[in-house]
Specification:
The protein is of the alpha/beta class. It has two domains: 136 residues, 3-Layer(aba) Sandwich (Rossmann fold); 212 residues, Dihydrodipicolinate Reductase, domain 2 (2-Layer Sandwich). It has 14 helices and 20 strands. Strands 6, 9, 10, 11, 12, 13, 17, 18 and 20 form a nine-stranded mixed beta sheet that branches. A four-stranded parallel beta sheet has the order 3-4-5-19. A hairpin with a 2-residue loop joins β14 and β15. α3 crosses α4 and α7 packs across α14.
Length: 411
């Protein structure tokens, strides 16, 4: 596992309860952080010996290859920011290992018409190498977090078992999470990587339509109020660039595919200010003789998402709203969803709910791959696999499953 930040740390804590693997290498540029994750696992599971810490530079494909070979890794699980996707992707391939990530290679906006036409799309660099992975008999499973990931599994399930024709596959993500400082005051503290959040929220959102293909819109376009389950309630959601829109149409027949995220007015305002000030840029600038990336500075100035769990309350919901014609031939509107309460993940794993919800899905996928339930070669998305074993394993009570049920609402 490359990366022991919030999601990587949570994945290790979840995996420690499972028996499908022989060894789990927690690798990070910061060896101390990797060692903290291993120590946390051992504290919760005395006598656990399968987890070891290692140092690795995720920006170096050669370093990833050397580490995977040193430990005889069968799989390389990418749990770092997507700016490192390609070196980790290439490092896994050179090592002869299968690969998993939770976000695809980065996009580049169209140089002349960024809010109408796509440029380099999310995942394009990885899909360009699909034939090589397939020829090697190796699997690169892209986007197997929660969104993308579980949302894509929901899409496969809806197409196979709920709908005969799909009008729209609409991923909808919302929460009622609040973070407080030690004095009880509400503070701004994103629950996921700020670097990644800036990337996906300020890039031109991508929409897919059968008659038009992929196209872009302006950031925060097409606002709608979506009512989330689990006591979260109505949240305004807007278009955001996200991998589901680039994955689902490759395997599932639908007239339209969208992704909308419940950001809230405050968050949208902050993102717009960052854009106005140029603080969303990744290219280094010189500050008093030192080269720094403005976006890296913003991310470093905010609380680490892995540490805010004790200060956070509320729930998060990831889901897919599917409209179309049901198997019985009648119109159908169905929301498939997964709601997670921060209090429960903190009590059970010492991990805040957003990173925990992301982390559980690649661990489930790894277990299915280890068992041979999921098989494949090439560069594939979650939609390429049978959804039922995944959803059953996720929801089944422990110790047989992961004890994290999902829901389905007709609307």
């Amino acid at each position: 596992m490359i990366g022991s930040g919030g999601v990587g740390d949570a994945a290790a804590r979840i995996a420690a309860e499972r028996a499908f693997f022989e060894a789990w290498v927690v690798a990070d540029r910061d060896l101390d952080r990797a060692e903290r994750t291993v120590a946390a696992v051992v504290r919760r599971h005395p006598g656990e010996t399968r987890f070891v810490a290692a140092q690795v530079d995720a920006a170096s494909a050669d370093a990833v290859t050397a580490l995977a070979r040193e430990h005889g890794a069968t799989h390389v699980f990418n749990a770092v920011d997507p700016k490192f996707n390609m070196p980790v992707f290439h490092g896994a391939k050179a090592a002869g290992a299968d690969y998993l990530d939770m976000a695809m290679s980065l996009s580049q906006r169209h140089p002349e018409e960024p809010y109408e036409k796509v440029g380099v799309m999310l995942g394009d660099e990885q899909f360009a190498e699909a034939a090589e992975w397939e020829a090697d008999g190796r699997l690169a499973l892209l986007g197997i977090g929660v969104e993308p990931g579980l949302s894509d599994v929901f899409a496969r399930y809806a197409a196979d078992h709920l709908f005969s024709e799909i009008d729209e596959l609409g991923t909808r993500d919302g929460a009622n999470l609040v973070v407080h400082d030690p004095d009880g005051n509400e503070i701004f503290a994103p629950s996921f990587s700020m670097w990644t959040t800036i990337e996906e929220c300020l890039n031109p959102p991508v929409v897919w339509e059968k008659d038009r293909g992929w196209f872009t819109t302006a950031p925060f376009s097409e606002p709608e109020v979506f009512d989330f389950p689990g006591g979260i309630g109505p949240v305004e959601c807007v278009n955001v660039e996200h991998e589901e829109v680039l994955l689902m149409p490759r395997w599932i027949d639908a007239r339209r595919v969208t992704f909308k995220y419940g950001l809230g007015d405050e968050f949208i305002t902050i993102l717009k200010v960052l854009r106005t000030l140029g603080l969303d840029r990744t290219e280094p600038i010189t500050v008093k003789g030192v080269q720094v990336s403005p976006r890296d500075v913003v991310a470093a100035a905010l609380p680490d998402p892995a540490t805010i769990g004790p200060q956070m309350t509320g729930k998060t919901c990831a889901g897919l709203f599917v409209t179309g014609t049901g198997k019985a031939g009648r119109p159908r509107r169905t929301y498939l969803h997964h709601v997670v309460d921060n209090a429960e993940t903190m009590e059970g794993y010492g991990a805040q709910c957003v990173v925990w919800q992301t982390a559980i899905n690649p661990v489930v996928a790894l277990e299915l791959l280890a068992a041979g339930t999921w098989k494949g070669a090439g560069v594939l998305g979650p939609e390429a696999f049978d959804a039922v074993p995944f959803l059953d394993l996720l929801a089944a009570a422990k110790p047989d499953g992961y004890g994290s049920p999902w829901g389905l609402e007709e609307r």
